[in-house]
Specification:
7-stranded mixed sheet; alpha/beta; 6-stranded parallel sheet
């Protein structure tokens, strides 16, 4: 089979297509013939030697195949969960070695869900790591109906799903993005939009119960004035050191880092929302398999609206 190998950490030019052996599957695994692959910022960070490169045995993997988000068809199975011919999607083995940049991917059956028939493989591959992250963040934060929540980078991959999932819970959503993406953010359900180039956040936003951060520690500090006493912050990019934790505690705010985990049960929940139209993927651009480097470079611009997908 063809796979994209990361020959060494560094630039996108280090992603090389090679012929490799088709993998064997173990107990309770299925072999997925991949149709589409979701690309995320963590793919780029890991390629560069950050991200989850030093998590577990990722950096010990010879001829590392990156990627975690797949949608495709089961062609072999050692599990009663799925039959040959089933269309499935999911985030495979995150934060370990997912090996998704390949024509065939072995996947634990309990990390996948059946792909809804009313969405494409592209839309399904997009709806894996990003909405799983939002779903698990909201669960950890205990977000409930009526909460006022602030979602940063609301037009991005995680952000655009986070808005939709928060509205499904019944929260009031303020989303931040550039002015150029204001209409998009509001169109997918945000109640308010804040242009992060447009002034002081505290002048426009107030009484926030929960902040979803995907930008970094400076952004967390800048968000503190708008959070209620007793409020919460969860970041998917920032570890909370003693200094940052102390700054939050001075405002009676708690903060936590969360790393998304593969989960077939969560994928089933997302599949149901995708099937009934309550959750939709916005794929802004797709690339051919041999243009994976271009897909990485697009993500690296930091200006992607919604998701980037690679098709095989």
């Amino acid at each position: 089979m063809k796979a994209i190998i990361l020959v060494q950490t560094g630039s996108a030019s280090n992603l090389v297509i090679r012929d490799v052996n088709t993998p064997q599957i173990g107990d309770e695994e299925v072999l997925v013939q991949v149709k589409s692959i979701g690309i995320n910022p963590v793919d780029i960070k890991t390629r560069q030697g950050g991200g989850v490169y030093n998590y577990g045995d990722v950096n010990k993997q010879a001829d590392l195949i990156l990627g975690w988000d797949v949608s495709g068809t089961v062609i072999a199975t050692n599990s009663k969960r799925f039959a040959i011919g089933d269309d499935v999607f999911g985030m495979v083995n995150f934060p370990g070695v997912g090996s998704a940049y390949a024509e065939y991917v072995p996947a634990p059956a309990d990390q996948l869900a059946l792909k809804p028939a009313n969405i494409s493989h592209q839309e399904a591959a997009a709806a894996t790591l990003a909405p799983l992250t939002a779903l698990q963040v909201f669960r950890e934060a205990g977000v409930k109906a009526g909460d006022r929540i602030l979602i940063h980078a609301a037009s991005g991959g995680v952000g655009h799903y986070a808005i939709q999932l928060a509205k499904e819970i019944g929260a009031y959503v303020v989303g931040t993005s550039s002015a150029a993406n204001r209409d998009f953010v509001l169109s997918i359900g945000a109640d308010e939009h804040f242009d992060y180039h447009g002034g002081n956040l505290a002048d426009a936003v107030h009484d926030i119960d929960f902040v979803f951060d995907s930008l970094g520690p400076d952004n967390i500090i800048n968000s503190l004035p708008v959070i209620k006493s007793g409020g919460k912050v969860i970041s998917i990019v920032t570890q909370f050191n003693e200094d940052l934790t102390a700054q939050l505690a001075a405002k009676n705010v708690t903060g936590k880092f969360l790393l998304v985990q593969s989960s077939g049960e969560d994928m089933k929940y997302l599949a149901a929302l995708l099937e009934n139209g309550k959750l939709k993927s916005h794929v802004s651009k797709s690339f051919a398999f041999d243009k994976m480097a271009d897909a990485h470079e697009q993500i690296e611009t930091g200006r992607t609206v919604g998701k980037i997908v690679v098709n095989i």
